[in-house]
Amino acid sequence: MSNNNSMAEQDLYQDIIDNQKTESKVSQEEKKISTWLVFKSEESVYAIESVYIKEILNNNDIFAIPFMPSYISGVLNFYGKPYAVIDFQSFLNSTKTSKKMFMILDTDDDVAIQISDVIDFYNSNEVVLQPITNNTDNDNFSQALVSIREDLRAPVLNVNSIIKKVKKEIDSI
């Protein structure tokens, strides 16, 4: 009997191993499929991987905070929690964003990015991710460009780098 139990346990163990191998193959295939949000900040077009986006809001009130960098518009209330609003155009040393549309980022840092408009969401089957080789001096963007059509190309935001810069500047105040 113990021999039968041992065989049954070995079979069960082998089934578990086989299932884990199958799951890891599926997970790797799922990781290859991603969704991109292409958006406008004033007249410029950018892309962000959708895993970084929790929600998109329109026309929310922003409450000013004194002594913040000029690109921090203030905070907005998202389900009772304050989110620091980064005016993306101002962050890039450009004009302020005129429209009140916000991407709530899905990070632990409670940050929203103020944008002008959402162009559309595209899955990885619809885009070509092209490397950018001459953009090494700007870490606000990853070293990639999302290309949907010949007339629609967008640099990809480096969310972690942007948040790191903002936190560093705020901490120095």
3D structure, described in words:
The chain has 173 residues and is of the alpha+beta class. It is built from 3 helices and 11 strands; from the N terminus they run αβββββαββββββα. The strands form 3 sheets. It has a 5-stranded mixed beta sheet with strand order 3-6-7-5-4. It has a 3-stranded antiparallel beta sheet with strand order 2-1-8, with no helix packed on it. Strands 9-10-11 form a 3-stranded antiparallel beta sheet. Strand 4 (72-78) and strand 5 (81-87) form a beta hairpin. It is globular and about 70 Å long. Mean pLDDT is 84; it is low at 23-31.
Lay out the secondary structure.
Elements: H1 2-32, E1 35-41, E2 44-49, E3 53-58, E4 72-78, E5 81-87, H2 88-91, E6 101-105, E7 111-115, E8 117-123, E9 128-131, E10 141-149, E11 152-157, H3 159-171
Parallel strand pairs: 5-7
Antiparallel strand pairs: 1-2, 1-8, 3-6, 4-5, 6-7, 9-10, 10-11
In short:
With 173 residues, the protein is of the alpha+beta class. It contains three helices and eleven strands. The protein has helices at residues 2-32, 88-91, 159-171; strands spanning 35-41, 44-49, 53-58, 72-78, 81-87, 101-105, 111-115, 117-123, 128-131, 141-149, 152-157.
